[in-house]
């Protein structure tokens, strides 16, 4: 029996646009709620959210068989990626990639020897169903999906070189950090930034790699999909909760009744 088939990897390879949501609440309960909405993928954020190995594991457990989990570690540390893969994550998004050399290092981090340096600990790991998948070691490399995040001017300059590295399964453009690096701190929607994001998506696609991006602007998300982005996150759990709770209270205070919650039981 081989490692589980990575349906997300197959979909973006085939150019099927996968719609996702960023999860930063670091909670399995809210992750399960978001998965119930039917998103193709959910990003478990270990870079800017208060996640650690136990919280990531709990979220991976509730997402099993539903929305595909993508895990972003804080950095591209090899030991950190090893732990995330052993938890059972098959798709990782590594932030702040700026060179082909970094890309090659990340490819080696997600692969078992001789193609890589991933440690052999599957017998203890959730990834192999605790050693109940007999062919896991022989088949795991093919089912890991490595996504690399470019989010600086240096990263943009190296897109073609990064895409040329064998084993890179997709390249994600990070508008927020890119905006800051370009001198537009807190303004990812600035026209100059958006121009670079759009050009980056086209360049990634021209290299034959799937492109990804995050925006809470639905019109912009559709624009990215039209340009050929294969994995598009259209918001975050934090953003949705903040907007919904603020609107809910404001509607009450101004005398406007909010719409009834479907099936609500108290």
UniProtKB/TrEMBL annotation:
It comes from the Bacteria. Transmembrane segments: none annotated. It is an enzyme of class 4 (lyase). Coiled coil: none annotated. GO terms for molecular function: lyase activity. Its EC number is 4.1.2.52. Keywords: Lyase, Metal-binding. Residues 18-242 form the HpcH/HpaI aldolase/citrate lyase domain. The keyword rRNA-binding does not apply. Belongs to the HpcH/HpaI aldolase family. PANTHER family: 2-KETO-3-DEOXY-L-RHAMNONATE ALDOLASE, PHOSPHOENOLPYRUVATE CARBOXYLASE FAMILY PROTEIN. NCBIfam families: HpaI. This is 4-hydroxy-2-oxoheptanedioate aldolase. It comes from Gluconacetobacter entanii.
């Amino acid at each position: 029996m081989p490692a589980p088939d990575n349906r997300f990897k197959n979909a973006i390879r085939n150019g099927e646009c996968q719609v996702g949501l960023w999860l930063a609440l670091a909670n399995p309960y809210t992750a399960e709620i978001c998965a119930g909405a039917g998103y193709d993928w959910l990003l478990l954020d270990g870079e800017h959210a208060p996640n650690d190995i136990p919280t990531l594991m709990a979220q991976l457990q509730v997402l099993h068989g539903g929305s595909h989990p993508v895990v972003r570690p804080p950095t591209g540390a090899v030991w950190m990626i090893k732990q995330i893969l052993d938890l059972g994550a098959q798709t990782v998004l590594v932030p702040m990639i700026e060179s082909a050399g970094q890309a090659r290092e990340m490819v080696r981090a997600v692969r078992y020897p001789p193609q890589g340096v991933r440690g052999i600990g599957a017998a203890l790991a959730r990834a192999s169903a605790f050693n109940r998948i007999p062919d896991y070691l022989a088949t795991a490399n093919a089912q890991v999906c490595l996504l690399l995040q470019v989010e600086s001017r240096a990263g943009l300059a190296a897109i073609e070189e990064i895409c040329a590295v064998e084993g890179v399964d997709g390249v994600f453009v990070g508008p927020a950090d890119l905006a800051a690096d370009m001198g537009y701190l807190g303004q990812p929607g600035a026209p100059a930034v958006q121009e670079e994001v759009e050009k980056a998506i086209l360049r990634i696609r021209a290299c034959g790699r799937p492109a990804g991006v995050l925006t809470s602007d639905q019109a912009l998300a559709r624009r990215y999909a039209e340009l050929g982005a294969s994995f598009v996150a259209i918001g975050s759990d934090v953003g949705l909760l903040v907007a919904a709770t603020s609107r809910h209270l404001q509607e009450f205070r101004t005398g406007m009744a909010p719409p009834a919650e479907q099936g609500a039981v108290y």
